[in-house]
Amino acid sequence: MKKLTFRPIYLLNALWLIGLMHILYYGLRPYRHYRYEDRVQPDTQAVILTLGLFSLFFIVGNIIQLIPIWKKSRYQCYIFLSAVLIFQTLIAFMGAMHAPPYWATFIINGLFLLFIHFLAFPIWALYHTYKNTAQK
């Protein structure tokens, strides 16, 4: 029987699905228009665009995991994913003024991804590296 091991890609895909459900939850609910004060149904195409923009980081991350360059140059892949995430956050902040709730959840999810990518993942990687070197 094979022993199941934890891989960061599993956490990445779980965060992707949770983030998509979070955006979709607010994308299906009517919201109050900022100017007219009446309830407005969200535009389906705008919600799909928001889901696509949120998925950009995860699609690139999964593709990088599948190609063999991930094993050889992890730092370059991390820097490339960082650039994708910063681009995604820049797009999110550019559309922030008078944004509907699904766009606000896109911004919140993007900030959470920034926290995970730039703080939690490097700490986990360092812990994993030092744990493996201490066992040798």
- The beta-strand count equals 2
Rounded to the nearest angstrom, the distance between the terminal CA atoms is 25 Å
Strand order of the largest sheet: 1-2
Shape: elongated
Helix-strand topology string: HEEHHHH
Overall average residue pLDDT: 87
Largest sheet: 2 strands, antiparallel
Give Rg in angstroms: 18 Å
Q: Classify the secondary structure makeup into a structural class.
A: mainly alpha
Keywords: Membrane, Transmembrane, Transmembrane helix
Describe the structure.
This protein has 136 residues and is mainly alpha-helical. It has one domain (8-135). Helices cover 76% and strands 3% of the residues. It is built from five helices and two strands; from the N terminus they run H-E-E-H-H-H-H. A two-stranded antiparallel sheet has the order 1-2. Helix 1 runs antiparallel to helix 2 (44-66). It is elongated, with a radius of gyration of 18 Å. The mean pLDDT is 87. The chain crosses the membrane at residues 9-28, 48-70, 77-96, 102-127. Keywords: Membrane, Transmembrane, Transmembrane helix.
